[in-house]
Design goal:
Helices cover about 25% and strands about 20% of the residues. With about 800 residues, it is α+β, with helices and mostly antiparallel strands. It folds into two domains: about 260 residues, Beta-galactosidase, Chain A, domain 5; about 475 residues. Strands 4-5-6-7-16-11-10-9-14 form a nine-stranded antiparallel sheet. It has a six-stranded mixed sheet with strand order 17-26-27-31-28-29. Strands 3-8-15-12-13 form a five-stranded antiparallel sheet, with no helix packed on it. The N terminus is likely disordered. Bound molecules: 2-acetamido-2-deoxy-beta-D-glucopyranose (12 copies). One 2-acetamido-2-deoxy-beta-D-glucopyranose binds next to loops. Pfam families: Glyco_hydro_92, Glyco_hydro_92N. One of its GO terms (molecular function) is carbohydrate binding. Keywords: Hydrolase, Signal. This is Glycoside hydrolase family 92 protein.
Length: about 800
C-alpha cells in the first residue's frame, strides 16, 4: 500500500495513547457463554484468564456437555480448573483441551491406619461441586468463582504459565486438598501419560489426548508448584480399568512418587493423578504448560512467573501485566465511551477482546519442526476466521497478524501446504476450501511493501499459495484442496472417483467450488501485489471465475431462478432443493463434512451459498437476473428464514445489497441483524463464536465496515457510534472516523422513518471519495480523518446508489484492476 505521508498524524509513542479510558473494565467475558443444549445459542466463548493470543487459557470446566470451551454459564457442577482451552469453537461437544485440571476439596484422605475413601474423592464424578450462585467474576486477565462449600478459586496467566489461587474456608483448616488430575481432559480421551510429585509438592505431568476437531492425538505437558509445603502428598489411580472410579491412594510426606501409563491406541478409562494435602487456608499454585516436555513446562513457568526478590510469586503483577496487554489491544479502536450508547460500547470492546484470543501463539512449542519462524495453533479453522478475524487484525494488529501469516507460510514450508485447521498442534478437518489462501492473499495486497520488515518472506508466501492451488495433498481430509478435480473439470464433480489415491471426503462439492474460486482469486491478488508474471495472474483470475460452473439456471425456488447445484462429471446437474440445510429445511439433512452429506453444501443452503463470490458479486447479480431481482431475492432470503445468522456462510449477505447499488438496504439490514441476533447477554452470540469470527463480524458491523476478502476493499456501512479512531502500528497512523449528522435514534433494530441512517457522502482528509459504498484499506488506515455524512431521506438514498464512483469491485466488471 502506498501511504500519503502528508496526511500522517504522527504518534508520540509507538502504541496507541495511554490516556485512554480503562477499556478492559468495559469487556463482558460472559457474552456467548450460555449453554448450547436444547437449541441454546452455544456461543462457546471462553471467559477464563488469558493474555492476547495466549497458549495458556485457564478456566473452570463444567460436568455437562455441550461445553466446547469448558465453561457454561449455568448451575452445572464443576470438575476442575484446567490450563488450555479453545475459544468459541464447535467440534466435539465435550470440548477441546481441558488438560491437567486442578480441583480443591475438603476431606480426609488418610487416618493413622489407612485411607478413608468415604471423604477422599479425587474421581471426576464424585468430586464435582456446585458454584455458589452469582459468584463467577471475569475480567481480562482474571477469573474467579466460589463453590457452595465456600472454597474460592481465582486465576491469572501469561502466555504459557499462570497462577491459580485457592482460598479455603477458615473452618476447614487441616482438611484442605488439591487433586492434580493427570487423565481427565474435557474429551475424556486419555491415551497414556506420566506424573511425578516430589516432597516439596513439585508436580510434572505429560499425557496424550485426542484432538477436538481432527483425526489425530497430541501430547501436552504441565508443571505445578505450590506456595506452601504440603502436609502430605501422593497419588491416586483407578483400582482397575473396569472400576475406574475406585481408587488406590498412596500418601507420603517424604519420598517422591510417580505414575506411569504406557501409550494406548484406544482411549483409557483410567483416572489417576496426584493428591496434595495442605494445612494452609490459602494455597497458590503456579503452572506452566508446554507441548514439548514437562521440563519445558517448568521452565516456562519459571520464566513467565518468576520468584520475586521477596521470594514469592507476584500475583498482582501478573494480573496487571495481562490487563495492560489487553488495554493495548483494545485501545487500538477508540471511541468516546461516555458519549456513545453504553450497549454498543460493551458490545464493541467485548468483541474486540474475543477477536484477539486466538490464533494462539505457540512459538517455541512446535513439537514437529525446528524453525526460526513463529508457530501459531488454534487456527480453528481458517474457514471460520478468514472472513472477519484476519481482516480485523489487518487494521489494528499488523504485527500480530504478520506473525500469524508467517506461521501459515511456515506450515507450507514444512508440510507443503498452507495449514487449514491446525488445532491441538495437529492438522484438523478441512471444512471447505483451503481458506488460509484468502488470508495470505489479503496480507500480500495490504502489506506487500512492509512484509519483509514484518518478517514475512513474500516469495515464500506466494509459493505457498501456488503450491496449495496446484497440488493435492495425499490427505486432503486435513489439509489443502482436491485440485485433481478442480483442475481437470473446472468444478468439483459429484460421482467422480479420484484416481490420484489421495484421501478426502468427496462431499460439499458446490461449497468447495465457491471457496476454491475465492482461493484462486487470492493467488491472483498476491500475484499482482508481489509483481509475479502476467501469465500467473491471468491464469488464477480465470480459474477464480469457475464458480459459475456450479450454476444451474433451471432450478427455481420461491419463484427465483438459478441456483448453485451439485454437478456430475458428465456435466449434468444433480438436483438439491435450494432450501436444503437452511434453518427452515423441512427434512432433516446432514449438512456437515461426512459422506452422509448429499446436498453438496457445507453448513449452508444453496439459497445462501449461491450468494458467495466476494470477488465477483456482479456475476451473481447478472446470473440472478439483474439489480431488481437480486434485491428481491436477498429480501426473500431474509423473509423466508434462510439467513443463518450463527454461521459463517451468511456473513457477507446483510451488506450484499451494495452490489445492486442499494447501500441503504444494507444499512437497514445490518441494524436489524445486530439487534436481532446479538446482545450483551450470555446468549448474545447467534452461534459458535468460532475463534472470534462472530466477534470480528460484529465489530465490523458496529464500525460500519465489511471487508471484501483477499482485497483492499471494504464496504461502507452506517456506523453505530458517532466517531472512532483506528490505530495502526505498522504504518504509525491514527485515522479518525466521524459520522456527520450521527443520529442516536438509529441505534435500534428498525430505525424510524426519517432517522439519519443513510450514508450520503464520504470524505477522506477533506476530499470527496465519490463512493458511499466502498472505502479502500489505504484510506481506512492511512491516517487523518474520514467523514461519513448521513441523512434520513430514504428515497434520495435509494436513488443515489453507490455514488459517482460506481458499484463495489467485481472481477467480471473490471474491478480489482491490475
Ligand atoms: C479498571 O477498572 C476495573 C473495574 O472497574 C478496576 O478494578 C481496575 O482497577 C481499573 N484499572 C485501572 C488501571 O484503572
Ligand atoms: C439448575 O438450573 C436449572 C434450570 O434453571 C434448574 O431446573 C435446576 O433445578 C437447577 N439445579 C440446581 C442444583 O440448582
Ligand atoms: C481409618 O479409616 C478407616 C476407613 O474408614 C477405618 O476403618 C479405621 O477405623 C480408621 N482408623 C482410625 C485409627 O481412625
Ligand atoms: C524428587 O523430585 C525432585 C523434583 O523433581 C528431584 O529434584 C529429586 O531428585 C527427587 N528425589 C528422588 C529421591 O528421586
Ligand atoms: C496416536 O499417536 C500414536 C503415536 O504417534 C499413533 O500410533 C496412534 O495411531 C495415534 N492415534 C490416533 C487416534 O491418532
Ligand atoms: C496447621 O495450621 C494450624 C493453624 O494455623 C496450626 O496451629 C498447626 O500447627 C498447623 N499444623 C501443621 C502440621 O503445620
Ligand atoms: C509470540 O511469542 C513470541 C515468543 O515469545 C513473541 O516474540 C511474539 O511477540 C508473540 N506474538 C504474539 C502475537 O503474541
Ligand atoms: C478461462 O480460460 C478458458 C480457456 O482459455 C476460457 O475458455 C474461458 O472463457 C476463460 N474464463 C474466463 C472467465 O475468462
Ligand atoms: C435447462 O432447461 C432447458 C429446457 O428444458 C434445457 O434445454 C437446458 O439444457 C437446461 N439447462 C441445464 C444447464 O440443465
Ligand atoms: C450424467 O450422469 C448422471 C449420474 O451418473 C446420470 O444420472 C445421467 O443420466 C447422466 N446424464 C447424461 C446426459 O449422460
Ligand atoms: C444496477 O445498479 C447499478 C447502481 O445503481 C447501476 O450502475 C447498474 O447499471 C444497474 N444494472 C442494471 C443492469 O440495471
Ligand atoms: C442504547 O441502545 C439500546 C438499543 O437500542 C437501547 O435499548 C438503549 O436504551 C440505549 N442506551 C442509551 C443509554 O441510550
Amino acid at each position: 500500500m502506498k501511504l500519503r505521508p502528508s496526511f500522517f498524524l504522527p504518534l508520540l509513542a509507538s502504541a496507541a495513547p495511554s490516556n485512554a479510558a480503562n477499556l478492559t473494565s468495559l469487556v463482558n467475558l460472559f457474552i456467548g457463554t450460555a449453554s448450547g443444549a436444547n437449541g441454546g445459542s452455544g456461543g462457546n466463548a471462553f471467559p477464563g484468564a488469558a493474555v492476547p493470543h495466549a497458549m495458556a487459557k485457564v478456566g473452570i470446566d463444567v460436568s455437562t456437555a455441550p461445553r466446547q470451551a469448558g465453561y457454561i454459564h449455568d448451575n452445572s457442577s464443576i470438575t476442575g480448573i484446567s490450563l488450555l482451552h479453545d475459544e468459541g469453537t464447535g467440534g466435539n461437544t465435550d470440548g477441546g483441551y481441558g488438560v491437567f485440571p486442578l480441583f480443591p476439596f475438603i476431606g480426609t484422605c488418610s487416618n493413622s491406619s489407612g485411607v478413608n475413601i468415604a471423604t477422599c474423592q479425587p474421581g471426576i464424578a464424585a468430586r464435582a461441586a456446585l458454584r455458589a450462585a452469582g459468584t463467577d467474576v471475569a475480567s481480562p486477565g482474571y477469573f474467579s468463582t466460589t463453590f457452595v462449600s465456600g472454597i474460592q478459586i481465582e486465576t491469572t496467566s501469561t502466555r504459557r504459565a499462570g497462577l491459580i489461587r485457592f482460598t479455603f474456608p477458615a473452618s476447614s483448616t487441616g482438611s484442605n486438598y488439591l487433586v492434580v488430575d493427570l487423565t481427565n481432559d474435557l474429551g475424556r480421551s486419555f491415551s497414556g501419560g506420566t506424573m511425578s510429585i516430589s516432597s516439596s509438592g513439585h508436580v510434572q505431568l505429560g499425557g496424550t489426548f485426542l484432538q477436538s476437531y481432527g483425526p489425530s492425538n497430541y501430547s501436552a505437558f504441565a508443571c505445578y508448584d505450590f506456595d506452601s509445603v504440603p502436609l502430605q502428598y501422593g497419588t491416586y489411580q483407578s483400582a482397575s480399568t473396569s472400576s475406574p472410579a475406585v481408587f488406590d491412594i498412596a500418601l507420603s510426606s517424604s519420598s517422591n512418587m510417580s505414575l506411569q501409563f504406557p501409550f494406548t491406541t484406544s482411549v483409557s478409562p483410567v483416572q489417576a493423578g496426584g493428591l496434595v494435602h495442605f494445612n494452609a487456608t490459602q494455597v497458590v499454585a503456579r503452572f506452566g504448560v508446554s507441548m514439548i516436555s514437562s521440563a519445558q513446562a517448568c521452565s516456562n513457568a519459571q520464566e513467565e512467573v518468576p520468584v520475586t526478590k521477596e521470594g514469592a510469586w507476584d500475583w498482582d503483577a501478573i494480573v496487571a501485566a495481562s490487563q495492560s496487554e489487553w488495554e493495548d489491544v483494545l485501545s487500538r479502536v477508540q471511541i468516546d465511551v461516555e458519549k456513545e450508547n453504553a450497549t454498543i460500547v460493551e458490545l464493541l470492546y467485548s468483541s474486540l477482546y474475543r477477536a484477539s484470543l486466538v490464533p494462539a501463539n505457540f512459538t517455541g512449542e512446535n513439537p514437529y519442526w525446528e524453525s526460526p519462524f513463529p508457530f501459531f495453533d488454534a487456527m480453528f479453522c481458517s474457514w471460520d476466521v478468514f472472513r472477519t478475524v484476519h481482516p480485523l487484525l489487518s487494521l489494528t494488529s499488523p504485527r500480530e497478524w504478520a506473525q500469524i501469516v508467517s506461521a501459515y507460510v511456515d506450515g507450507w514450508r514444512n508440510t507443503g501446504f498452507i495449514p487449514e485447521c491446525r488445532a491441538n498442534t495437529k492438522p484438523g478437518y478441512v471444512q471447505g476450501g483451503s481458506d488460509g489462501m484468502p488470508i495470505l492473499g489479503e496480507f500480500a495486497v495490504k502489506y506487500a511493501e512492509q512484509a519483509e520488515e514484518l518478517g514475512v518472506p513474500t516469495d515464500d508466501l506466494y509459493q505457498a499459495l501456488v503450491d496449495t492451488a496446484e497440488n493435492t495433498a495425499p490427505d486432503w481430509l486435513t489439509v489443502g484442496r482436491q485440485n485433481t478435480a478442480w483442475i481437470m473439470f473446472d468444478y468439483i464433480p459429484t460421482d467422480w472417483v479420484d484416481p490420484s489415491g489421495d484421501v478426502g471426503l468427496p462431499t460439499r462439492e458446490a461449497s468447495r467450488c465457491y471457496e476454491y474460486a475465492l482461493g484462486d482469486f487470492a493467488v491472483r491478488q498476491a500475484g499482482i501485489a508481489l509483481k509475479k508474471s502476467q501469465a500467473d495472474i491471468a491464469k488464477y483470475a480465470n480459474r477464480s471465475m469457475n464458480f459459475v460452473n456450479m450454476w444451474d439456471p433451471n432450478v427455481t425456488s420461491d419463484g427465483f431462478s438459478g441456483f448453485a447445484q451439485r454437478r456430475f462429471q458428465n456435466g449434468t446437474f444433480a438436483f438439491t432443493d435450494p432450501v436444503t440445510c437452511s434453518p427452515v429445511d423441512p427434512i432433516a439433512h446432514s449438512c456437515a463434512r461426512g459422506t452422509d452429506n448429499d446436498s453438496g453444501f457445507y453448513e449452508s443452503s444453496s439459497w445462501e451459498m449461491s450468494f458467495f463470490a466476494p470477488h465477483s458479486v456482479a456475476t451473481l447479480v447478472r446470473l440472478m437476473g439483474g439489480n431488481t431481482t437480486f434485491v428481491n431475492r436477498v429480501n426473500n432470503y431474509f423473509a423466508k428464514g434462510y439467513f443463518t445468522a450463527g454461521n459463517e456462510p451468511s456473513f457477507n449477505i446483510p451488506s450484499i445489497y451494495h452490489y445492486a447499488g442499494r447501500p441503504d438496504l444494507s444499512a437497514l439490514r445490518v441494524r436489524n441483524v445486530v439487534f436481532t441476533d446479538f446482545s450483551t447477554q450470555i446468549g448474545g452470540i447467534p452461534g459458535n463464536d468460532d475463534s472470534g469470527a462472530m466477534a470480528a463480524l460484529l465489530t465490523f458491523h458496529l464500525l460500519g465496515l465489511y471487508p471484501v476478502q483477499a482485497s483492499t476493499q471494504f464496504l461502507i456501512g452506517s456506523p453505530f457510534v458517532s466517531s472512532y479512531t483506528l490505530f495502526n502500528e505498522a504504518f504509525n497512523t491514527e485515522t479518525k472516523f466521524t459520522v456527520s449528522g450521527f443520529d442516536p435514534s438509529t441505534i435500534v433494530a428498525t430505525p424510524p422513518s426519517g432517522s439519519r441512517l443513510f450514508v450520503k457522502r464520504v470524505t477522506v482528509n477533506g476530499k470527496d471519495t465519490g463512493s458511499v459504498c466502498t472505502i479502500d484499506f489505504e484510506d481506512v488506515v492511512g491516517g487523518g480523518e474520514v467523514v461519513i455524512e448521513v441523512d434520513g431521506d430514504a428515497d434520495a438514498a435509494a436513488a443515489r446508489g453507490c455514488g459517482p464512483a460506481g458499484l463495489p469491485d467485481s472481477l467480471e466488471t473490471g474491478g480489482f484492476a491490475l
